[in-house]
Amino acid sequence: MLELIGAVIVLMGSLFLLLASLGLIRMPDVYNRMQAGTKATTLGSILIFAGAAFIVPAQWPRLVILIVFIFLTNPLSSHALARSAHFQGVPVMLPGRYGSHGTTRDDLAAARAGETLPPAADSAEEASL
């Protein structure tokens, strides 16, 4: 019975890892990709190790250590990478008022200061008008 429970938990972890890979493909910019990848891979890996603990109960102390390590380090490393990308000036893709183009830190600072940004052109035809 424990092996069946473990197999179901491992399957759920695998599905979260599949969702993480889809998020890496579908998200528009580095920050969203990092968020999707980190959250899903953290939960997916933790579920896989938890399922393995049900399947092989003798290994649960080692698996708990791995779960704690992943739980602490994966979000921290993602935060460090996102912070580095921000300081390097990697643009943020913001929908709505800013359009679907990359918005830089200068654009965001201007928007916070109350300056209006020109509407983003959705196609090259509108940009030429």
Could you give the topology of this structure?
Layout: H1 2-26, H2 30-55, H3 60-87, E1 92-93, E2 102-103, H4 105-112, H5 124-127
Antiparallel strand pairs: 1-2
Helix pairs in contact: 1-2, 2-3
Strand adjacency order, main sheet: 1-2
Which stretches are poorly predicted, pLDDT < 50 over at least 5 residues?
none
What is the radius of gyration?
Answer: 21 Å
Largest sheet: 2 strands, antiparallel
How would the global form be characterised?
Answer: elongated
Structural class: mainly alpha
Distance between the termini: 68 Å
Q: Approximately how much helix is present in the residues? A: over 70%
Describe the overall structure.
The chain is mostly helical. It has a domain at 2-90. The chain is built from five helices and two strands, in the order H-H-H-E-E-H-H. Strands 1-2 form a two-stranded antiparallel sheet. Strand 1 and strand 2 (102-103) form a beta hairpin. The longest helix has 28 residues, at 60-87. It is elongated.
Overview in brief:
With 129 residues, the chain is mainly alpha-helical. Helices cover 71% and strands 3% of the residues. It has a domain at 2-90.
